[in-house]
User: Fold these one by one.
Assistant:
Number 1:
Amino acid sequence: MQLKEIAKHINGDLVGDSIDVKGIDTLEDAKEGSLSFLLESSFLPKGLISKASAFISFGDLEKISKPYIKVKDPRKAMAEVILLYNPPQDVIHSISPQASVSRQASISEPVTIGAFSSIGDHTCIGEHTHIYPQVTIGNNCTIGKHCILYPNTVLYDGIEIGDHVIINAGCVIGADGFGYYQENSQWIKIPHVGHVVIKDWVELGANTCIDRGCLGNTFIGEGTKIDNVTQVGHNCHIGNHSALAAFVGLSGSTTLGDHVSVGGQAGFSGHLEVGSHTTIAAKSGVTKSVPSKRVFSGFPAQDHKEELKYQARLKRLAKKTD
Amino acid sequence: MQLKEIAKHINGDLVGDSIDVKGIDTLEDAKEGSLSFLLESSFLPKGLISKASAFISFGDLEKISKPYIKVKDPRKAMAEVILLYNPPQDVIHSISPQASVSRQASISEPVTIGAFSSIGDHTCIGEHTHIYPQVTIGNNCTIGKHCILYPNTVLYDGIEIGDHVIINAGCVIGADGFGYYQENSQWIKIPHVGHVVIKDWVELGANTCIDRGCLGNTFIGEGTKIDNVTQVGHNCHIGNHSALAAFVGLSGSTTLGDHVSVGGQAGFSGHLEVGSHTTIAAKSGVTKSVPSKRVFSGFPAQDHKEELKYQARLKRLAKKTD
Amino acid sequence: MQLKEIAKHINGDLVGDSIDVKGIDTLEDAKEGSLSFLLESSFLPKGLISKASAFISFGDLEKISKPYIKVKDPRKAMAEVILLYNPPQDVIHSISPQASVSRQASISEPVTIGAFSSIGDHTCIGEHTHIYPQVTIGNNCTIGKHCILYPNTVLYDGIEIGDHVIINAGCVIGADGFGYYQENSQWIKIPHVGHVVIKDWVELGANTCIDRGCLGNTFIGEGTKIDNVTQVGHNCHIGNHSALAAFVGLSGSTTLGDHVSVGGQAGFSGHLEVGSHTTIAAKSGVTKSVPSKRVFSGFPAQDHKEELKYQARLKRLAKKTD
């Protein structure tokens, strides 16, 4: 593909001559003929020594005398160029003879179902959905259109999944919440009969768990992205377009608003609300409700600026004791 | 079902007139005819605006003029009412023709074994146990009666499971512990040939891992409940009726007593003992043995009251520097 | 087996008379005739009351009048003695008729493939490799010789695994990284088309996740050992002979050198480098690059001695306020 065609495709400005692009690569792996990516100014040192023949760049390149495409959003441009070189494949209608599909399930066309996948009674699978091998879907589930369920996904009974949802391998959706009462100093199980509702365009990382509601549902709003190995407790409600990094733990009945961002290994006490557009820093411990459009950090979590001031003061105090 | 029948079933006091209960719901989802639950006083604001027609309540309701059942333990009552509306189903004897069951395995009746589950040699499965699809059970395992093993449970060889045990999807029981010695600056594996013993009434959350012992066993005592994505290292010994929340990590040879509670994301250094009836707060890092009937928090964990005092003093000191 | 034979096998010094060793056990479980292990001086109190008839010991035993074998490295000796009593079994060539192996896959001999395992197109499996039931291997993967893949291992397409690699149950190798760009306040997926390369002698714990690179590869160097439930983000590069404990989280593009040790529940911000032979303590939060041959702890992580001093000063300051 010619560099000028790529520039046109991603709506960028070509600076320098067009070349024949032989492939796309990281700055480190690039060979002659490679197109590579300068996503921000911190990438420049690697760009200077890269063997790439051309770049997609966040801005003007003064010290690199190779052709480049200047774009407004280099991450968006990278995504578009990767798709150009790796176009998504259409789902072919194919149900493995080694799958176990209930006669009472309703499977649209086209749908791919891999070997050793198991689909329960009264479960509906929407068109263009790709179910990899070894997926287990219980009874009375609804999976929308254009979804991808990677191997070892487990959906317990009664789970509702929207369209364009991606569930990575090993996710468990709908296990019982961690709810007990005590009698004679023993834990007695509270049955969990609610469901899980996951809306359109959600992506769940590998080995992530979303527990079912006790009564009522656990809910993940549209466009929310959840990283690997994250735990969402029973009856949590996560709004739209939020993002949770790995190892985040939400205790039961935590509510996150829309556009909330949560850093890795943060934890939430449960029965609290996080306002929309709020960011919770990595490793925070959120113990009470926090308002919207703010940043919180620390344990117990407080306003991030207050936390930074507090930590700085402690450092100064400790220094004085020398 | 009539409200007065429910009151009788849960041994509660009906206040107001009996009604025809059409279903049970959360306070938020309740419709006319719904019975809902006021588990503690903090639920009252939601109760006031709930459309539920009746409640099960922790105490007297002054501002809500609807019938209610007053009970001593509303969580217990809720569990009993959920079971009333969702009676557990008997296990039907059914071994999927798509399962792989060793001829040398011993399967009681009735037992359900789902599609694509694999049962190894000399493994025994007790009656009324339900094995979902895609479960892998190795050789020489013993599973008791009335157990539930959800999809993708993996039991390595030689695992012993008691009666009434629930293992949620994706649990891995019996992987080798993380034990190595060093030679020429390289890590060399120490083989793990011990087993895992899990006693009656244990519940394990989704994607939780219990490593096998190196020599000797890893042990989970009766009635202990472990949340999702928890890691129990080799040769750990957890007593009876303890409770571990999500993301708790126990390094090898940690010993927890009976009735120990551990909050989410807490970690334990290994080769230490936690006394019975002790609580370890969320996110704690326990680096040495701690006695019984106490509460510990912080990292390194110390007596919880001391930790609170310490944090309060630091706050005051920091404030003074303003 | 005679104690003197064992002494010879592990190149240790027998002190006292040889006995007939009936088995190997932990100090607690040992019976008459058992050989047990005193790995370090802290084991002596348990050794004194152990019923073992002989020991392998780190040093001279003054208060225990039983025969023992003195060795330089008791952990190495323990590993060798365990192997003596539990010799590893040869892999028998056996492909389950209930497995799904692509005709375009290349399977060496001998290889074991268990029931319900699925091997994709153009995937190569080296000789003496044991694939347990329920393993899913995608297309275009390469698995070396003498590997063990436990049940529910998932390899996405294009994964490269060296020789002598052990992957415990529930691992997910090659899921997409957590990479998105924002448009109209929504997260749009950046496709991940890189691969994962895992070199010889690596061991991965149960339910661990290694994401694929976006462009370029995620890399795990030779001899590196990773514990259960660990998350390695896209494009991370881990050197040789490193060790990561459970719940460690590496954000995308983290680089760890050779011989790095990371304690449990530590986290890394991504796009940073950790020098070789450096240790990161448990629960640390590493927010910027750190040099080699050092120890770091705390959040944000700093030099461990500085962190200890800092914590000690805070304790002293807090005490003064009494």
Number 2:
Amino acid sequence: MQANKKRVRMGMVGGGEGAFIGAVHRIAAALDQEIELVAGCFSRDPENTRRTGAALGLDAARCYPDYQALFAGEAALPAEERMEFVSVVTPNNSHYPIAAAALDRGFHVLCDKPLVVSLAEARALEKKVEETGLLFCVSYNYSGNAMVKEARHLIRSGALGPIRKVMVEYLQEFLSYPYEKEGNKQALWRVDPGQAGLGGTLGDCGSHALHLLEYLIGEEVAELSADKAVYMPGRVLDEDVNLLLRLKGGGKGTMTVSQIAVGHENDLSIRVYGAHGSIQWRQEDPNYLVHCEFGKPKKTLSRGNAYCSADAAGVTRIPTGHPEGYLEAFATVYRAFAVAVAQRRAGALPATEGPDYPGIGAGVRGVLFIAKAIESAQNNGAWTALV
Amino acid sequence: MQANKKRVRMGMVGGGEGAFIGAVHRIAAALDQEIELVAGCFSRDPENTRRTGAALGLDAARCYPDYQALFAGEAALPAEERMEFVSVVTPNNSHYPIAAAALDRGFHVLCDKPLVVSLAEARALEKKVEETGLLFCVSYNYSGNAMVKEARHLIRSGALGPIRKVMVEYLQEFLSYPYEKEGNKQALWRVDPGQAGLGGTLGDCGSHALHLLEYLIGEEVAELSADKAVYMPGRVLDEDVNLLLRLKGGGKGTMTVSQIAVGHENDLSIRVYGAHGSIQWRQEDPNYLVHCEFGKPKKTLSRGNAYCSADAAGVTRIPTGHPEGYLEAFATVYRAFAVAVAQRRAGALPATEGPDYPGIGAGVRGVLFIAKAIESAQNNGAWTALV
Amino acid sequence: MQANKKRVRMGMVGGGEGAFIGAVHRIAAALDQEIELVAGCFSRDPENTRRTGAALGLDAARCYPDYQALFAGEAALPAEERMEFVSVVTPNNSHYPIAAAALDRGFHVLCDKPLVVSLAEARALEKKVEETGLLFCVSYNYSGNAMVKEARHLIRSGALGPIRKVMVEYLQEFLSYPYEKEGNKQALWRVDPGQAGLGGTLGDCGSHALHLLEYLIGEEVAELSADKAVYMPGRVLDEDVNLLLRLKGGGKGTMTVSQIAVGHENDLSIRVYGAHGSIQWRQEDPNYLVHCEFGKPKKTLSRGNAYCSADAAGVTRIPTGHPEGYLEAFATVYRAFAVAVAQRRAGALPATEGPDYPGIGAGVRGVLFIAKAIESAQNNGAWTALV
Amino acid sequence: MQANKKRVRMGMVGGGEGAFIGAVHRIAAALDQEIELVAGCFSRDPENTRRTGAALGLDAARCYPDYQALFAGEAALPAEERMEFVSVVTPNNSHYPIAAAALDRGFHVLCDKPLVVSLAEARALEKKVEETGLLFCVSYNYSGNAMVKEARHLIRSGALGPIRKVMVEYLQEFLSYPYEKEGNKQALWRVDPGQAGLGGTLGDCGSHALHLLEYLIGEEVAELSADKAVYMPGRVLDEDVNLLLRLKGGGKGTMTVSQIAVGHENDLSIRVYGAHGSIQWRQEDPNYLVHCEFGKPKKTLSRGNAYCSADAAGVTRIPTGHPEGYLEAFATVYRAFAVAVAQRRAGALPATEGPDYPGIGAGVRGVLFIAKAIESAQNNGAWTALV
């Protein structure tokens, strides 16, 4: 039973011992004290689930051996007790069946990215969300950063003028080493097309990069030209992809995503250039936003100041100079989704996506991006429309 | 009642509407999901307490009109239900009576810094902690940063050689504007000697700076020479203090603390130079540690890498490149204290302080520092021993 | 007459009042005190030449009305007095006739980049250099930086392993404003295909970028795919070009060059990733080189340290921490060329290019790059070989 | 004989093989092509002087065995041929006799810092400069940086408001190693009180730091409190000094100078805080100036932009983004002095100091600073007036 009735009740699939992103989701959910984890199936191994649940202080009866049991068991509980939404944090290939089953049982869903492993699955899931009318969130966590909101505000306000050039990078060094040969769980599923899907770094990094770009500029990528590479023996999924972009509004750009870029840890950055100004933001230094205006000194905006927009201020927890990081941005997505779930519980009809919570559409778009980048690369970089 | 029995139960005094640090403490306590806020007296205004408690989803019966009622009410609850420790997040002048009352009622205490407003209070509280045998933590949150632990590890391991020079800065611009004249709560109590105590920026910034320095180098400041300034009309407490330091081991250094340093937000930084190497760490960019060795390229260590020490790894939640910030470091202090409280609950006798939780001794030392810096400044910078 | 007989005697074509790069070349030539400017034709306007020469303290008799007169006049002087090489710093379209005429008269040539405005001219000039046996240098000044040499040394020594990924950027904001409409000389010729040649930013920035890349990695770009843009009304030459690259050794990469990237001043940077390590260097912060090795802390190498290679040390004038900049790197190219000219004067046969002086081959390659990038862009980004 | 009659003719004392700063002065003098080195006595070893002169292409007859011979020999040459000023770049203890002898022979003098080794010498030299009416420059080269001029302009224009706080650092690691035991010439004289004078790092670094501070803020340090340290066995001069400062206008500050600060190369930096704004400048990154205004985003000003003041623009050679460095700033001091010498040659009476050339008064003040810092340190940090 839950003491704090104000909180939204969450279940989780995935995130057992040996996983990475599950613990991140749990902290993100806990941070703002508006969500309570009440149930879970943390692993395909029931013993792992049991240990994980115990370590988290969960009621053993709500640690289920498989996701079907989770959904059935929770659905059988009284409405004021059962979980209200499920967080899906498993390898990519199981997102579809789990999310679909949750929706079928009437649970709202927050799903890790990339949404699913094929365009067909993406569209099927989109249809199911529409049909059930349930809430669905894709955890593009980087959009939760306050200074990303600030950049988006500047761009929407016209401060940069028409967008001419974008540069998006998402560079990691993680897969420069064949960790999968040592049994590393994170590496194993990421290099396995059966679990990761069509894309390697395109799925892991590229889907984030595309979302951040389109979220920021409020404009879609019209078409892309991609060149992908695999260097490590035994791997088949892309480790490194370079792309040229053309925006719907006429601007152009580059994107590069890599998991073999030695020296980069989790280096997602974006630069947007308009006719009059530009912005630069970097995930590893997320509390700052560089804003340049032609002919003026470079400005560095810092989270938490009075000059920041309401969009940024609304997701700011602590004063300027007190750095918020990855978990806080992640928590912003959770909080926005929890607010929507609570509104629904109260009988309202919240929007199915919002500035702080990316919806099913953004999830579908990420899968489309992966599929089209692969298609372009297979056609020697032919320009390929993102439709 | 609390659902998750694994969690340590916390109460809070202070942190109502209009306060800053209380919400920080609540996030810090929630982040690692090992602590549950169950009771509180959030303001001297019972209505504020009621609203704050409701917003937090607390049981109204456990939102008390004053701290005496809080301690009495909780003490009257069954042991498995009542709060186990209280977090004291009020202005400095009330730390002593509240903490003393909590100890008298048998509650462990986590107290914000500076510990109290006079050396006499500090020593009385230290005595009471010893007599009661209860656990006491002072929230010097900056020591919770992973890369501070890494620096401390390097220094302890001898990587720098004997310490020759230290430079500590804690610079803010906050009080460059007379916010107290506009009724800003944060400013009002900070510039009021009746609430803040002897020190202005010495209390707010200086006590952190001293703790960080001594924690890092594992060596005490032997004596100091201070020059303090007040620029804004109507203020009496120090706004800006420059200090020369002499360490017990023979090294020397500077410290500067200010709340009128325009352009600095919360800029706590430390540099330590030994015979062979040096380190630099900066709170606003906390995931990195610069380590220099004479005659070699500068190295930038990044939190979360395999090369980091066990001390740093033990307080690292997420991988390298995914920035942790202010709240995470704060949560590390809370978690360490919660672990000790849970051990005590289980009948063990945990240490009364530790690398991750600063004890009453560190709190006393902070007050001593403030008192001696004021004394030196009043004696035109006479060298004054920190004893 | 020249007092200091040790110095190599230089003439100059271009660089009169209103020009930019001519003064840069003169400082670069003077800095190391091994070259003396003795003659010139600084403008098509003889009066400008006269004034410029007078301001420089030149003998009025050696300030010539046109380049033909310069070459004829100097050729007629005694061997120990006449200029030994000519520096050509005019708009691109006149490089070919001037350089060819100088070679025909027996003068060595240092020519600004891009070498000439068409592949046909480039190959004709290359042939003439071979036939005359004279020395020819193209002022790819960025290769003169000490830390570029250090990076090249690291790569040649195998420290990075096989090259997998390169990222080259050369971003300026200069042409975000239609300066040519205000009669700005720098802008006027740069946006005029008649003077600038095939490429706009490809010529100004791209030729530097390609040279820096190939110089650093010691490997050629095999093919490229380009997408170019023109945004400002009335312009026809590329303002912004994004490229995908494939290296002969199997690595891949991106290049982006722009003169409408608001917020960038002269932002040439390069990143090279190998199997084991990577380097990053940025022209606006040229005294440092970032070197990463997988699994180790990031290292920042600083010019002038004992750990630097002989290649870097050989072009280092002042100790570490005393920044050398753009002019010093430029002077390194001049000095290397002057040394070769002095060796030739002394009867030796110096190499026709070297690590510190880029020869005609590098000049041809730059023109080839411009031509092929334009060709690819005109073919909607078709992969185009750089041959 | 000199070909270029426009140039000012310079002689040099010091700067032979094994020296450092002499070559720097020669580049600084050559860079702007307005000065010609025509004579010298580069070492107390005539053979060293002969070799150095030959390497520089000087007339052997003007390479003199001692400074007395230099002054006598040059004085005997025709006025249009003989050197016009002498650059004194010897160890500190010989500055006085050489400069005095030069003045006595009627030569203008540019002298390296610190001016001389005692206050008595400083005042005697000041008197001689006044009596002879000759021009005298002290090469405080850091004041030659464009962005230092920009900062000075901002402060003079009142952009910062009344100055409240200054922080000056000049940190090097050079003497962390006992180079003097290996015969290193630079180290040998610097640690020898007989050659270096009263101060060690106070002379090398401190005199620059004081000049930069007073130059920037246009206000004098009223009094100081100093604590000095010597760590390396066998040394007697200060290696590291920490100081508290009080300004005439009521502001306060810190200064720290060190040559044993491992990890710092030539790290001179200054921060100035006023009531409304602040600036930060750092010599190792000299093309930028950080300017903060309370409540606004941090601005980074970059040399060479149209928004820069005339003071900065006047010493800017190349466009923004093309870094100028240490030598360029040094050359600015030389150029300003050469302009004054040329004006005097032409019969004018130029000012005896100026924004771009520090005069004898600044030299005296540097020596006063060293003497008073030593005095304060010997009196256990007693506040000591700078008069």
Number 3:
Amino acid sequence: MRTLYHHTLSAAARKVRLVLHEKHLTFDERVVDPWQRDPTLIALNPAGEVPVLVENENPIVDATTICEYLEDAYPENSLLGSMPLERAEARRLAAWFDVKFAREVNDHLVGEKLIKRVTSRAAPDSRALKAGRENLQTHMQYIAWLTERRRWLAGDQITVADLSAAAQLSLLDYIGDVPWDNEPLVKEWYVRLKSRPSFRCLLRDTVPGVPAAAVYADLDF
Amino acid sequence: MRTLYHHTLSAAARKVRLVLHEKHLTFDERVVDPWQRDPTLIALNPAGEVPVLVENENPIVDATTICEYLEDAYPENSLLGSMPLERAEARRLAAWFDVKFAREVNDHLVGEKLIKRVTSRAAPDSRALKAGRENLQTHMQYIAWLTERRRWLAGDQITVADLSAAAQLSLLDYIGDVPWDNEPLVKEWYVRLKSRPSFRCLLRDTVPGVPAAAVYADLDF
């Protein structure tokens, strides 16, 4: 019995959904609103944040912790690799996207255009949007640099690094903010990810009042 | 051959120093300034952040990634535990202090009183100090709640959870900002940590121009 408490606008929760599907672990879903201090969520996680995975009544909290737990408990279809240095590179890049990309790009663009709209209906701050767009260019160049040298971001195999990056980018893609045509190698890598069965759950996500950009669910964008 | 690039004001780097000492792994130290965009640091870590551990010429980046790498490569003296759920609890609490406590307490108090002083000589923002002090009370209560129920924060054994918490608190303690007398159980837990040989390296740290509070290096405060 496995239930994931998540929200469609949480990149951290999107990553865990991708990880669960990549590891072929079935789960029920409960969408909860982390901006409403939902008592069910607070009881599971005193930090009041999604995602929370409940497995046999044990709550497992924090996206990175959930991914590490799933690797510990279900080592098949590893998303970290086997050698310590290889695992370190996958974890380094996962943290890069979970923390640095989130703070420099998604907090500005997704935060202003989607989350602010859903939580307060306030208008986006144009300086934040400008900063987010500029930072996104630098990050796209870094992803391009990696995809020039490696099949997947951390090496020969798909890892949590790809899924962390895809989780962030998928939200930007929902609002049509990814300049795919500037970076063909990044686009080719993302097409490969987007075509995987694990990605289908994200492509069905909708945000009330904000229709997805035309490219979002299109596998041939 | 193992070198840690770190800075005395980085809680993340303090945690890694504690982990290396707890695992009895010897290392050289290089103090680098993450606020100066040091070219040596950027070459090792494109994010330009400390800590970076270099082992046999391989840079390992990001504090959590370094701790996980050390567990993978040197499983003796584990700081995570052995069972998946036990490891998840240690990781959950480590993330709590690394991210939530850092953002709600240390970014305000240590950020305003120490880091701002070292980087810009600007005066602290009194609203940030007030917010930090209020948030610290809530966090002290949470640590008290844990120490009432468990010998160490995540269970019977010392883990990365204790070391993450101690790394943050040690910086607050340097400026004399921890209300130890309000929470005797938290103080008793911190005395146990502070008395461990791994902690000695932190107690010798000094910040130029800012003398440590009287309690900082005192084991009987």
